[in-house]
Design brief:
Blueprint lengths: L1 H7 L16 H6 L12 H7 L4 H19 L1 H10 L2 E4 L2 H9 L3 H4 L2 H21 L4 E5 L8 H6 L1 H4 L5 H24 L4 E5 L1 H10 L8 E5 L26 E3 L7 H15 L5
Parallel strand pairs: 1-2, 2-3, 4-5
Helix pairs in contact: 1-13, 4-5, 8-11
């Protein structure tokens, strides 16, 4: 989605990763992507997955801020950051591993874990604000129980249908996210912050696939479409589907390019103007 956001805002076609060793000065000045696959709010989740957590991404952003200050000076760097839009999506992996293998389930019930994650999220948003970020879009959680991998993991109980326990966890987090935003606005009057309702849009694509030219919504295009995800979806997987544009999911957890484009266009036309 970050590429569609950059293109839709007329900035550039692709948003390069911050860790790309070949980044040029112009790339830094017009926007980069700090996101990392499998990132989490809960430190325990990233330790299990061995990925770059949200907190580390903020450390990279601090480095970035110093770098562009060296390129254009303090005043211009401050202006670039103040006018930039920060798109953030995080939390799905925390719940995925909470329900699967995380020892957090022995420590917290779902509501307690939700509160724990949102408290951590609030700290990070405040830190970003202190670093100059004033336009922030928080993408909420999808209906987690409808991801093909979750349908597979709960198939004995649900016979392939969406898992309501996971969907309810996502809904509870999203409600808390909205409350978090409402609490931040009066405390930080210069902050423009919105929630992008990813959950509702995916639910709409699942409920009315033919309206959007989709045909398959319960399994991914890659391999069997029920377990392959991230690095498991590779050249050794069984053949991918002949036409991914007819699928909602490309692998068992991530959407196809077509689905991301549909959702990004809605965000750009309906929600992002509130931040401009």
């Amino acid at each position: 989605m970050s590429d569609y956001f950059a293109e839709g805002l007329g900035i550039k076609e692709l948003l390069p990763p911050y860790l790309d060793p070949n980044l040029k000065a112009q790339d830094l000045l017009t926007g980069v992507c700090f996101a990392a696959a499998g990132a989490s709010l809960d430190n325990l989740t990233f330790q299990i997955l061995n990925v770059i957590p949200f907190g580390k991404q903020i450390e990279y952003f601090k480095e970035y801020r110093k770098t562009i200050t060296g390129l254009v000076g303090e005043e211009e760097a401050t202006t670039i950051i103040r006018k930039a839009i920060f798109f953030i999506t995080i939390g799905s992996n925390d719940f995925g591993y909470y329900f699967l293998v995380s020892p957090r389930r022995l420590q917290f019930n779902v509501q307690e874990y939700t509160d724990f994650l949102l408290n951590t999220y609030t700290v990070y948003i405040k830190e970003l604000y202190s670093l100059g970020a004033t336009r922030i879009a928080l993408i909420n959680l999808p209906p987690l129980g409808c991801l093909p991998i979750e349908r597979t993991l709960t198939s004995l109980r649900n016979k392939g249908a969406c898992d309501e326990e996971r969907n309810e966890a996502a809904s509870g987090f999203n409600s808390g996210l909205n409350a978090m935003i409402d609490g931040l606005k009066p405390a930080f009057p210069n902050l423009k912050i919105v929630s992008l309702d990813y959950n509702n849009l995916i639910s709409e694509l699942i409920a009315n696939p033919s309206k959007y030219g989709l045909e398959v919504i319960a399994r991914g295009c890659c391999g069997t479409g029920i377990v392959e995800s991230l690095f498991v979806c590779n050249q050794l997987s069984p053949s991918t589907c002949p036409d991914a544009s007819k699928y909602l999911f490309f692998d068992s957890a991530h959407l196809t390019q077509k689905a991301y484009q549909i959702i990004s266009n809605v965000f750009l036309t309906r929600d992002v103007p509130q931040l401009l």
